[in-house]
Design brief:
With 198 residues, this protein is α+β, with helices and mostly antiparallel strands. It contains nine helices and six strands, in the order αβααββααβααββαα. The protein has two domains: 64 residues, Arc Repressor Mutant, subunit A (Orthogonal Bundle), CATH 1.10.10.10; 112 residues, Arc Repressor Mutant, subunit A, CATH 1.10.10.10. Helix 2 crosses helix 3, helix 5 crosses helix 7 and helix 5 crosses helix 9.
């Protein structure tokens, strides 16, 4: 058996996964012995430490996840702050409204309401700290759900979700979907950039 036979596929899975994953799950995907995968994970973790790279391999109980090295937290925060200072686009605001009024919701629910793929927009809202993962829903496939954060409340000047504008106000004058978008967007004072900027 080659010494690093499983290294490349294990790293590929860890990199692509984005969430903690167990050695058992990796072993099943690669069709390998779980003990070989555990040894590979420990070897990768130790090598990253020795080489002092900008990322590391965390062990979270029985799961593993790639992450940025905490030594670089200050520069990471500066980088993220520069992204957070840009105003939200109408597309991002729409996704945020759907999540805020229906949370916790899955990505599939958001896309069903909008009628378009929303994975990129959800990822950017996660990066800005306006939404967070809120566990898995008790639905077929156990989809990951999303909910708003305290950062969301502070951004919109709210103390709780109860202060969100009502959804069904002025329903006779405008279509059912508009109150949510129109009143929700009123909370933002900044001019929104074109949709393709987020």
């Amino acid at each position: 058996m080659e010494k690093n036979k499983y290294r490349a596929p294990v790293e590929a899975i860890l990199f692509a996964c984005g969430e903690p994953i167990s050695a058992q799950q990796i072993a099943q995907a690669i069709e390998a012995d779980v003990f070989e995968i555990q040894r590979t994970l420990v070897s990768i973790q130790q090598e990253y430490r020795r080489q002092a790279r900008g990322f590391c391999l965390l062990q979270l109980e029985d799961r593993w996840q790639m992450a940025a090295d905490s030594r670089f937290l200050p520069v990471i925060q500066k980088s993220m702050a520069s992204q957070k200072n840009t105003p939200l686009s109408p597309a991002a605001l729409e996704v945020l409204a759907i999540i805020a009024y229906n949370q916790p919701v899955s990505r599939a629910f958001v896309e069903q309401v909008r009628g378009v793929d929303s994975s990129s927009t959800i990822q950017k809202l996660l990066q800005r700290g306006l939404i967070e993962e809120a566990g898995r829903l008790d639905l077929p496939g156990r989809p990951l759900s999303f909910a708003t954060t305290d950062v969301f409340l502070r951004t919109f000047g709210l103390t709780s979700l109860e202060e969100l504008p009502p959804l069904h106000q002025h329903q006779q004058e405008i279509s059912p979907n508009e109150p949510q978008q129109r009143e929700f967007s009123d909370l933002f004072e900044e001019e929104l950039p074109p949709e393709d900027e987020i």
